[in-house]
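Hey team,

Filing this mostly as a record. A colleague (T.K.) asked me to run one chain through the structure pipeline before their review meeting, and I want the input and output archived in the tracker in case anyone asks later how it was produced. No errors, nothing strange. Just documentation.

Input sequence:
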Amino acid sequence: MSAELAFNRSVDVDYGVAQEVAPGVRRIVAGNPGPYTFLGTNTYIVGQGTVAVIDPGPLCEKHRAAIARALAGESVSHVLVTHSHRDHCDGARALQEQLGGEIVAFGPTGGPRGAGAPGLGDAFVDPHFVPDRKVVDGETIRAGGFALDVLHMPGHAPDHLCFALVGKRTVFTGDHVMGWNTTVIAPPEGNMADFLASLDRLMQRHDKVFLPAHGGRIQTPQRVVRAYIMHRQWREQTILACLGEGIRTIPRIVEKLYGGLDTELKEAAALSVLAHLDHLIDREFVAREGDLNPLGASYVRTSSKASA
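Output structure:
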């Protein structure tokens, strides 16, 4: 099993310019590049005349003005939000005030949100975000000449939605599947079991194109999803191997597996390791000992399970 994923980081971006990325779909990239957002958040415009805007992005006047320029003479029926992370949802209300449209998202989940690493805490997620219309898996949003099926795909975030363009075999995947990097799974915001189950759902589909919220289009969807799954399986095995070698704490596991990462990203890596350990504990392959703080606890493989 290989740990290598073929990421595509060679993406040309002309900030503020609407570019057609699929028939009837335009993309405008927000100017918010960073370690978790790559070149910036992709805002998608679906349809012509009457359109839906997917992921309005951060609260940024320049980005909002670019969307408005692209939509001159058109009307917005819906502002769709894949999940309530600020780089996706913060611009929703301001865009609605300027251009109209019903804000549509999964809505509050009632569970804990955020994660304890730089860039991944309360400043990363808006726990108070409430859409005008809450939708669930299996609903369809229709406007103008297009329809979008709602796919609830938790894992990266508990409220994460993907939107499938009906009849086009095209899915707007938000942060669930991206071509430039693996998806951050950071508890309690992220849940590895949910993430893998959502990936399995995508494997059952026959899509031709994924349009993620960061990075370029994915033209081999099932191959990429399969690689995501294999990568997580491989990472789980490397964590179990660490435990077998007596490396029992998350900081030491991170140092062993992610030694070359920047300090800020190592904190995110620690949460990813925690997500894997939680998934292993749920399946009784691993037990937690000691510190009530899971990031400071020790972990051991259980004698009742030989391998994952």
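Quick notes for T.K.: The chain has a mean pLDDT of 91. The chain has seven helices and 14 strands.
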